[in-house]
Design goal:
The complex is a heterodimer. By secondary structure, chain A is mainly beta. Helix content of chain A is 0%, strand content 60%. Chain A is built from no helices and eleven strands. Chain B is mostly beta strands. In chain B, the strands form two sheets. In chain B, strands 2, 4, 5, 6, 9, 10 and 11 form a seven-stranded mixed sheet that branches. The radius of gyration of chain B is 13 Å and the shape is globular. Chain B starts with a strand and ends with a strand. The chains are: A mainly beta, B mainly beta. At the A-B interface, strand 4, strand 5 and strand 9 of A face strand 4, strand 5, strand 9 and strand 10 of B.
């Protein structure tokens, strides 16, 4: 079993829909990251969370440390949101920056 | 723009050759990380440097090496290249190890 599990693997939705991508992990963590990888390959860091909730524009990330679960929400989705969304955690046991990566969720937003 | 600059963006080379990938971190960031992403694969951590010194090593082949210079830019050297080394190579930087990392756009290496 992978230490970081994302669901769904693939998601296709219509423009305007509310999107939720989930991330569950099995290790104790000091931080969780959500990243976005565009079709061209570039990676953008969206959020780094250790507790609670963060919001940036139409993106919202939440984390429940007790349940070892995080969600990434996209409101009013748009075709330009189409990308792979990756969850990665930093294990509390590892003092260095070796992230444990989820497999990614491929999101396609249709106009 | 993350502030992390990687060059070149694309590189095509033949098997057996050696290449150098360059990364300039964000201003003020002391930590640099290198990752490899093969086709349809997740990111694999290769190596981390902090203020010029190697801090952590991941799944980095012996044919690969890296260094971080006094001006904090980093280079990843790949030698005796094989077809399987074709991948996207990402560099990321952060202020220190436990802060948010910012990624460069990546170097797409194609070995033919």
């Amino acid at each position: 079993k992978n230490e970081v599990e994302q669901s769904p693997q693939n998601l296709t939705a219509q423009e305007g829909e509310f999107i939720t991508i989930n991330c569950s992990y099995s290790v104790g963590i000091s931080a969780l990251h959500w990243l976005q990888q565009h079709p061209g390959g570039g990676i953008v860091s969206l959020f780094m969370l250790s507790s609670g909730k963060k919001k940036h524009g139409r993106l919202i990330a939440t984390i429940n440390i007790q349940e070892k679960h995080s969600s990434l929400h996209i409101t009013a989705s748009h075709p330009r949101d189409s990308a792979v969304y990756i969850c990665a955690v930093r294990s509390r046991a590892d003092s260095n920056y070796q992230l444990i990566w989820g497999a990614g969720t491929k999101l396609i937003i249709k106009p | 723009d993350s502030g992390v600059t990687q060059t070149p963006k694309h590189l095509i080379t033949a098997t057996g050759q050696r290449v150098t990938l360059r990364c300039s971190p964000r201003s003020g960031d002391l930590s640099v990380y290198w990752y490899q992403q093969s086709l349809d694969q997740g990111l694999q951590f290769l190596i981390q440097y902090y203020n010029g010194e190697e801090r952590a090593k991941g799944n980095i082949l012996e044919r690969f090496s890296a260094q971080q210079f006094p001006d904090l830019h980093s280079e990843l050297n790949l030698s005796s290249l094989e077809l399987g080394d074709s991948a996207l190579y990402f560099c990321a930087s952060s202020v220190v190890s436990n802060t948010e990392a910012f990624f460069g756009q990546g170097t797409r290496l194609t070995v033919v």
